[in-house]
Design brief:
By secondary structure, the protein is an all-alpha fold. Helix content is 80%, strand content 0%. The longest helix is centred in the last third of the chain and has 29 residues. The chain is globular, with a radius of gyration of 17 Å.
Length: 195
């Protein structure tokens, strides 16, 4: 259940950024579509480098440290525009924070935790169910997002809180499993089914 809550709430923010990021940049910040696309293009190599970094640390003892840093960064990516308003500077800061946060505290770690939390025969089904539910929830929010963006700072504040709540649920669940967050093994050697 904690994986579903974590991924659904963090995905609300990521999906809003993905679907409506250009809309916000053009209609709220005042950038052109080209400028908005350029920001995404220029930060893409950074996101790729961070994804590779995630691969290097995900199976080690620093996983939860980077998850915590990612949570702070991902939450701040939505809190910065909510607090300081929507400007070119806050959009750039938010984009960089989102890149770091999503590398260490979003879909990648959810998939790793899903693999570690369910027996082999259930892993694909569990992961698929979590992703499907989160996408349906995000799609439902997207129906109302244009109206909610009439007050973009309020919308982004809500998204920042959603990210934080979802990440706290996962953090408390998986921190109790030790440094790597792995599920404990039962006496028979099968992985126990986690929350």
């Amino acid at each position: 259940m904690s994986l579903l809550v974590f991924y659904s709430l963090t995905n609300l923010a990521a999906n809003t950024k993905g679907q409506f990021g250009t809309y916000v940049n053009v209609n709220v910040v005042g950038l052109t579509v080209q400028q908005s696309s350029l920001i995404s293009l220029l930060t893409l190599p950074i996101s790729i480098a961070l994804a590779v970094w995630f691969l290097r640390i995900v199976d080690g003892r620093r996983r939860m440290l980077f998850f915590t840093l990612g949570v702070v960064s991902l939450t701040a990516a939505f809190a910065v525009p909510a607090i300081f308003g929507f400007t070119l500077v806050t959009v750039l800061i938010a984009q960089l924070l989102f890149g770091f946060g999503s590398a260490f505290a979003f879909e990648g770690i959810m998939k790793v935790w899903t693999q570690e939390s369910f027996p082999t025969l259930l892993r694909s089904s569990a992961q698929g169910a979590i992703i499907a539910a989160a996408r349906v929830i995000a799609a439902a929010l997207a129906l109302w997002t244009p109206a909610l963006l009439a007050t973009p700072q309020v919308m982004y504040a809500i998204l920042a809180v959603a990210v934080l709540v979802g990440a706290l649920v996962a953090g408390f669940t998986f921190r109790s499993r030790g440094g790597t967050g792995r599920a404990p093994r039962d006496p028979v050697g099968e992985e126990s089914v986690a929350v």
